[in-house]
Amino acid sequence: MVDFLDFFENAYRLKRTPRSGFWYYGIKEPETVAEHIFGVSLLAYIFGNYLNRYHDLNLDMEKILKMAIIHELGEALIGDLHLESRQFLGKCVEEAEKKAFKEMSEKLPEGLKDEIYNLYEEFEEGKTPEAIFVRSMDKVDLLIQAFIYEKTGYKNLQNFFGERKNFEYIEKIPEIKEFIESIKARRRE
């Protein structure tokens, strides 16, 4: 049954859901998941257009922006779990996120429900150029935010820059990898 208010009421929980990875490493008031989604969406818009215009990529920008906006919706129901928790919970996290995403999308009209669920599945599989790109932007946002926290005096954030999983998709896009290398260089200044 279509229930827009229920959908948005759940989605708006992301505005007050803290990013737990930063909390785990001592950030007193970490960004929220909604703030993260904004960062991913902005990065996707800027870098997607940049790569399309100046590096002859042919990314579907509409799909990218939709994917960036919806990629964390499941966390509205289950919260944000940091990498250390995920290592213990394994596939349970993926299954819970998928179930939560599906439950939320059930409140939308048929065609829209299918569209956002398909975008979510594509993002999770990480195989299409658009999914690879958005997954890389997801991690670029994480690394920029860690860099900003370090600049404001927080320490012990090296794990974000040393964690191999944070670079899996970034390394597939040379221009984005180069950008991340510039962030790493600035950390050393």
What does this 3D model show about the protein?
The protein has 189 residues and is mostly helical. It has one domain: Hypothetical protein af1432, CATH 1.10.3210. Helix content is 69%, strand content 0%. Helix 3 crosses helix 9 and helix 7 packs antiparallel against helix 8 (110-125). Its cofactor is Co(2+); Mn(2+). Its EC number is 3.1.3.89. This is 5'-deoxynucleotidase. GO terms for molecular function: 5'-deoxynucleotidase activity; metal ion binding.
| Total number of helices | 11
Total domain count: 1
CATH architecture: Orthogonal Bundle
CATH topological fold name: Hypothetical protein af1432
**Inertia-based shape:** globular
Order of helices and strands: HHHHHHHHHHH
Biggest β-sheet description: none
Structural class by secondary-structure content = mainly alpha
The N- and C-terminal alpha carbons lie at a distance of: 55 Å
**Proportion of residues in helical segments:** 55-70%
Radius of gyration: 17 Å
In CATH terms, the superfamily is Hypothetical protein af1432
> Mean pLDDT across all residues, rounded?
95
Beta-strand content = under 5%
- Poorly predicted regions are none
Provide the CATH top-level class.
Mainly Alpha
Task: Count all strands and give the number.
Answer: 0
Keywords: Hydrolase, Metal-binding
EC number: 3.1.3.89
InterPro entries: HD/PDEase_dom, HD_domain, YfbR/HDDC2
Subunit structure: Homodimer.
